Task: structure prediction
Amino acid sequence: MKKLYIDFDGVILDSIKTTYEIMDKQGIDKYNPVEARAFYEVLDWDKTLDITPEINNSLENIKKIIKSEQYEVNVLTHIVCYREGVSKIRFLKKHIPELSIILVPKEFSKTEVVNPKDAILIDDYTENLKEWKEHGGIGIKFDDHARVHEFPVITSLEEIL
Ligand SMILES: [Mg+2]
Result:
């Protein structure tokens, strides 16, 4: 079975948008790495993930992909802090108990934590896809507005089937 890695932020949930909105409301400079990190450390991640909109029915689509038995599915997601990781696991397990989840500390590339060789990565961040390809993997760009791109683009996870 082919290995399929699915990014979380910007693919499953629109979480960056939510955290940026909260930062704006609290008057935090989201482009200041020190301020942003301090914000992420104290954020109520469980609540934040619960209020964040799902992107194009992603959770149901992941269930469909698992059910198809075409892929060995893992979520592969960067985390800036420990509590973010705990909440992401809690969130995903609540919705899809059988799903495997791999957390990547921000200090590492996704290609340093898993072996990309011949595996597919669906990610909204082009830099991740470039690194993935450089290490022998197959990159698919997730974009909810279907722009033309150097990588194949999907707007909904079920397009992988
Ligand atoms: Mg992302």
The mean pLDDT is 96. The chain has two domains: 2-13+53-160, 16-50. The helical segments are 15-25, 33-42, 45-51, 58-68, 82-95, 110-113, 126-134. The longest helix spans residues 82-95.
